[in-house]
Structure formats: C-alpha cells, structure tokens
Design a protein that fits this description.
Elements lengths: L10 H7 L5 H4 L1 E7 L2 E9 L5 E6 L8 E2 L1 E2 L5 E8 L7 E8 L2 E5 L6 E2 L7 E2 L11 H9 L1 E2 L11 E2 L4 E5 L1 H4 L16 H15 L3 E4 L3 E2 L12 E5 L6 H13 L3 E6 L3 E2 L20 H4 E2 L4 E3 L5 H18 L3 E4 L2 H5 L21 H17 L4 E4 L21 E3 L1 H11 L3 H4 L4 H4 L10 E5 L11 H4 L4 H17 L3 E5 L24 H19 L13 E5 L7 E7 L5 E7 L5 E8 L4 E7 L16 E2 L1 E3 L6 E8 L3 E7 L6
Parallel strand pairs: 13-14, 13-25, 14-17, 17-21, 21-22, 22-23, 23-24, 24-25
Antiparallel strand pairs: 1-2, 2-6, 3-4, 3-7, 5-6, 7-8, 7-10, 9-10, 11-12, 15-16, 18-20, 19-20, 26-27, 27-28, 28-34, 29-33, 30-31, 30-34, 32-33
C-alpha cells in the first residue's frame, strides 16, 4: 500500500468527500488471501439502487450474489471466497431501481470485454516486471524546475518535445482484409516491437495514443469510453499494455494517453444512468446531454465523480507509468453554453457562461497530479479562447502545462490551401499567431482532427500540382518546426499519405514505393533530428527572448523570415517562401559580420527538391554607417521552400 493510500476505514469517507485519489483500490474487484483461501471483494457505488447483485461466471447470471449497502451514500459490497483464482472470469452488476433492473459493467474494472461484448473481467495488475527506471529518472531531468524559475513556467519542458500521434488500431494491421470482431488488429506487444524503433528512427520524442480505454464502438475512435480503468482488449491484456509502455520507455520514447473526462456514451452497460437514473452525469437538462456526440456530460461538481476521474488520471501514471495525458474536449466542459442555443442553458450565479464546477475540477485535478508527478505532461485540447489554461492554479489558471494551439492550426491550414496569388492578401495568417504565441505554453498540432471528414490529408491540403504540394508541405513543416511551441504530427503525415485517415484500415505504407513519399519520409526524419539537435528551436519556446522577426511585411512575396535563439545566444536564421517563385540574391539581415552557412534547405535533391541550395559559405555584407550599420547575407531562395542559416563559428578563409 502506498503511504498516501487511504485505509479501508477512511476510503469510503474520502470517496464521498471527493478526495479519495486511490478510489480504484477500494471500489471494483480486489483479491486477498485469507486463511489459505482466495477472497474477492466487489464494491460499487449505486446510491439510488434498491437492490444490487453480483452476476457472473462464478455465481449466476440471472440471480447472483446479493450485495450489501455499506455506506449511507450508496456503496454496495459483497465478498466471494474461492478455492481457485477467479482471474479471467466475467462479471457484471445487476442494479434494480423502482423494480427495473439493468446489467452494468464495473466502472472500476481493470479489464473488460470488447467488440460488442460488455462484461467486466476479474484481473490483477500485479506481477509485471518493469525495467524503465532509467527513463522515469530521465524524464524528471528534462523539466525546467529551479527556484529562480517563474511559477508560471515551473513545469515547462526546456527540452525538445516532438509527438507522434497515432491510433493503435490503424497504424498497422494484420494481413487480413476483413475487420470482423477485431481479427485484423495487432497485439500491444506486436505494435510496440514495430513502433518503438520506427518512432525513434524518425526522430520523435513521444507518442500520443488516441484513447486506449475500453470503448464499445470502433467508429468513436476511442472517445466514447465505457471502461475508464481498462486498456481496451482489442489489442490484448493489461499486461500486454504494460509491455507496450515499458518497450517505449526502453527505447527512450515517452507515452501520452488521450483522456476523456468530458463525456461518456449512452450504452446500456456503461455509466449511463448507472443506478437507474442520472448518477455520473449532470441531472439538469441544461447540462446533461452533449447533442453533437450523443453522449452525457460528467457531473464534475459531484464529489464521487471527482474521486472517480482524478483517481483515474493518477491510475494511468501509477499503474502504467505513462508520461502524460492529453485531455479531450476541455472547452465543452468550461462553457455552459457549449453547443447550446439561447434558452437551452442556465447562466451561473454571476450571470455568465463559465462552468465554475469544471474550473474547480481542473484546478483540483492538476494540483493533485503535479503534486505526485511533477514531471508529467498535462495537455489541454481547448478549442475556444479560454485564458490562462497553462497558468498555475495559484495564479488563477487551470494548471495544465501545455495546450494545443488550435488558432495557429486553423490559420495556417487556411493559408496553405490558397492559390499563392491570394496568399498576399492573407499574410496575417502567417504573422498573427505570434501576437499570442507566448500567452500559453503551446503545442503546434498536426492532429487526427485535421485529416478526416473531408478536410484532406496534410499533403493534399497544399495548393498546386503534384510536385508543388510536396514542396509546399516541406516548407510548411519547416515553418511549423521553427515556430515557438512544441510539436505534434499525426501518423501517416510523415510520408505524405494522400488518403484521409480511415480508422478501419491501416496506413497506406505501400505509398513508400513511390519516390515522393520516400523523400518526404526522409525529409521529416531529417527535420525532426535537426530539431532535436538545435537548442535554438526548443530552449526558449515560451518568450520573445527566443524569437525575433527579421522581416514580416513581405506579403507581396509570400515570405517571412525570423530568428530562433538559444539561452547562450546562438541563433538560427529562418526564411520560408510560400510563393512558387525562386528568388536569387534574397537578402537576410544578420546580427554580426562574418561567414554563414545553410544548414537545411527543403529544396535539397534528397528531399525531392530541385537542388537549388546554397552550398557555398555566405559572407556577410553591410550597409549604412556606424553606429547604424546593418549586416546582411544574400541567398538563393528556392520556390516553395524553407531555408535555415547558421553563423559559422570557425574562421573561413
């Protein structure tokens, strides 16, 4: 038992108070050895129930073992003695309210059936031999945490953070062409053994998994969860998922999970009206239903729901050693009028649209999580413009340490789809994001949301003919990787898959038979490694100290140029050209006299470019008189390209 884990005497009290952050150790199914026999204790929260029975393989499915109400606020319990292990056996709770019974899966089950089968499975999470201690120690060192660090940046990664987002069921599959009851899925272990070396080779630091918590419908992509404590059985057992995380850590790759505390589906066996009436969901009609998704909102103001969700977030760190959570649909929780028309929502006591219970929930969640895992990544997917998402709770913020930059994504995707002639009239889409770049700690996302539902794949978003699409995509990626903020790329983007993502089929790996796709994969790996090795691109991601414009007002040429700087003053000079026009003798202001060298060009032959690179050392020139003298270099700027320059440290004769 962890020293902070409550005893069974205190556990129910703290659960009902909303402060039992080990709720999964009390509720659910737990095994003990008593007098040489195995005893299993089952507990469930169902305050509105008249009767609760445990129905299972080891009792009966129609009339099982009757459970006893052990707290006035609705925890029910029963104990089952068995001469042999019940691990792997199926069970549910039969909950009766007003004479009507429902069969419910265990909200705290560690293992569940999947693919149209809905029982919980008795499981043990003990026995796996972790060997990721070196990684767990390493991840503590890559945070900027010292007494002189501003509180607002206490948990800021002063290190590269480059995330590969993926859906486990469609990254790769078996050769089987049919998706019948999950027959085409690879196991967690098989995926890990292929994925880990690939991600490392490609230069990513972390993976982010679309939800792996148990869900009944493949088409929800995992975002309609019924088993919050159970990694989905589609890909194997809890032990298999431990192997997956351990393998990633062995290879030096962090693991971030998508986590969904906003809503849950209305499947009969799930949390929906769990004890015969609304329980985990809001009870008021103004907050209960999420119309777009056809789901129910969690009542995060209810203490037992807080214990359930906060324990669940911590559970994945404690039991599965994950490195972070990307929290889905934060805006839908924060706004009372989210997806609601006037008259369909009730303002708070201040008369506005802020959900104060959700604000308090996020502050409580992040305070508790960072108290135990100071090195964690807590990433908000917040699609509105809520302020202080990544500011500390002590300053009135929500306490996350990163947020997806959705505004940047919307602007740049609009821009690259424009005919270059019209880009000159939309130049602010390139420059405006810097106006708010340091308001939060941002991640620049190329996410799954941007490559589905008719939005096109990334390469297909790019305006132009076949070759121009690839050239523009390389320029875009260079712009993204050199703009302040951590990075994220959805699977398949790295080799420029043309087809939109399809959750039912694996990525189009066969595209790597074609040169342009192989060249793009080569370019992405090179760009990622350049990012990892260039401290100018990640040491100062959170202030103007690490960024400086060279030229912004170049709308007529569809170009921008800027500097990225490291703590020691070393500087990269970046030029992005979004025009299909090559510009010889293109001037770039530099800080000092001396010699400069092109260290990356997207137009290199090996990346599929035309080869119009700057091979020679670039000597600076100057104009003006002291003290107003300015230094500059002239480069050949290829069409639809990105170029990065660095000063040569040694003297070049």
């Amino acid at each position: 038992m962890n020293k902070n884990e409550p005893t069974n005497n205190m556990a129910p009290y703290l659960f009902h108070q909303g402060t039992n952050y080990y709720a999964y150790e009390y509720l659910g199914c737990h095994e003990e050895i008593l007098d040489g026999s195995l005893e299993y204790t089952f507990r469930v929260w169902a305050p509105n129930a008249e009767r609760v029975e445990l129905v299972s393989d080891f009792t009966a499915w129609d009339y099982g073992a009757e459970m006893i109400r052990v707290t006035d606020m609705g925890i029910w319990e029963c104990k089952i003695s068995s001469p042999h292990s019940l691990v792997g056996k199926y069970y549910k709770y039969k909950i009766t309210n007003h004479g009507v019974s429902h069969y419910k899966a265990d909200p705290y089950a560690f293992h569940s059936q999947t693919n149209k089968k809905t029982a919980s499975i008795v499981a043990s999470l003990d026995g796996f031999e972790w060997n990721d201690g070196a990684w767990l120690e390493y991840r503590k060192t890559i945070l900027q945490k010292n007494s002189s660090s501003p509180e607002s940046n206490k948990y800021f990664y002063q290190a590269p953070l480059n995330i590969y987002e993926l859906h486990l069921g469609s990254w790769k599959t078996k050769d089987s062409q049919s998706n019948v009851d999950g027959e085409h899925y690879l196991n967690y272990r098989q995926i890990a053994d292929e994925l880990a070396p690939y991600v490392k080779k490609m230069g990513f630091t972390h993976i982010e998994l679309m939800p792996v918590m148990e869900h009944p419908f493949d088409g929800s992509w995992g975002y309609q969860v019924t088993g919050y404590y159970a990694p989905t059985s589609r890909y194997g057992s809890p032990c298999d998922f431990m192997y997956f995380v351990n393998k990633m850590h062995e290879c030096g790759i962090g693991v971030i999970l998508d986590w969904v505390p906003a809503h849950f589906p209305k499947d009969e066996h799930g949390l929906y009206e769990f004890d015969g009436q609304p329980l985990y969901e809001y009870q008021g009609k103004d907050r209960m239903e999420h119309r777009i998704w056809g789901t129910r909102f969690f009542d995060v103001g209810r203490e037992e729901v807080q214990s359930f969700l906060i324990s669940n977030a911590l559970f994945w760190f404690r039991k599965y050693h994950v490195d972070g959570l990307r929290v889905d649909a934060v805006a839908s929780m924060l706004y009372l009028d989210y997806d609601r028309e006037p008259g369909e929502w009730v303002p708070n006591e201040d008369g506005d649209n802020k959900n104060k219970e959700a604000i308090a929930f996020f502050q409580k969640l992040n305070t508790q999580l960072f108290a135990e895992f100071g090195e964690a990544l807590m990433i908000a997917e917040e699609s509105a413009d809520w302020q202080m998402i990544t500011k500390p709770v002590s300053q009135g913020g929500l306490g996350f340490n990163y947020k997806w930059n959705m505004g940047w994504a919307n602007d740049i995707y609009d821009y690259v789809q424009l005919d270059p002639y019209f880009r000159q009239f939309n130049h602010d889409k390139l420059t405006f994001p810097m106006m708010y770049a340091f308001n939060e700690n941002y991640i620049m996302p190329i996410s799954h949301d941007e490559v589905v539902h008719g939005k096109k794949s990334l390469v297909d978003k790019m305006y132009g003919d076949y070759d121009q699409k690839f050239s523009t995509m390389r320029a875009f990626l260079t712009y993204m990787m050199t703009t302040p903020g951590k990075k994220m790329m959805f699977m398949g983007t790295e080799f420029a898959q043309f087809r939109e993502w399809d959750y039912e089929n694996e990525l189009e790996w066969f595209m790597l038979k074609y040169p342009r796709h192989t060249e793009m994969q080569r370019f992405v790996a090179h760009l990622n490694k350049f990012y990892l090795e260039s401290k100018e691109l990640w040491e100062i991601d959170n202030s103007w100290d690490g960024y400086e414009w060279i030229a912004t007002n170049q709308s007529d040429t569809n170009a921008i140029s800027y500097k990225r700087k490291a703590i020691d003053g070393s500087t990269l000079y970046i030029v992005i050209n979004f025009a299909p026009v090559q510009r010889p003798n293109y001037p770039i202001l530099v800080d000092d006299e001396g010699s400069y060298k092109e260290v990356l060009s997207t137009d290199d032959f090996k990346f599929g470019g035309s080869g119009a690179i700057n091979e020679k050392i670039l000597k600076s020139k100057s104009y003006g008189d002291s003290p107003n003298k300015q230094n500059y270099i002239e480069i050949n700027l290829p069409a639809l390209s990105g170029v990065i320059i660095r000063k040569v440290k040694r003297r070049v004769k």
